[in-house]
Design brief:
3 helices, mainly alpha
Length: 89
């Protein structure tokens, strides 16, 4: 199989719905992985705001970090199932 054959095979894999959904979930996980720690640190560091906002920022940051882990695991599982599913070739 030449280079063209491998390219066609890769393009066919990208058209798979499971892989596309997995990549969307990876995007959500990466976004949460960056926003979560930022909000968490802002909740601890900013002394000019009220205590309620501290707790809200810390809670939202923790939830986003947990969301990043869960979505990352689910996305990897979905992408791998898309790669290794049987096709009718």
């Amino acid at each position: 199989m030449g280079i063209l054959g491998w390219r066609l095979k890769i393009l066919n894999m990208i058209e798979n719905k499971k892989i596309k959904d997995g990549l969307k979930m990876i995007l959500i996980a990466v976004t949460s992985a960056f926003l979560g720690p930022v909000l968490f640190v802002l909740g601890f560091g900013n002394n000019s705001i009220t205590n309620l906002i501290h707790y809200i920022l810390i809670g939202v940051g923790v939830l986003l970090m947990i969301n990043a882990i869960v979505f990352g695991i689910l996305a990897i599982k979905k992408i791998l199932s898309g790669f290794f599913e049987k096709t009718n070739e």
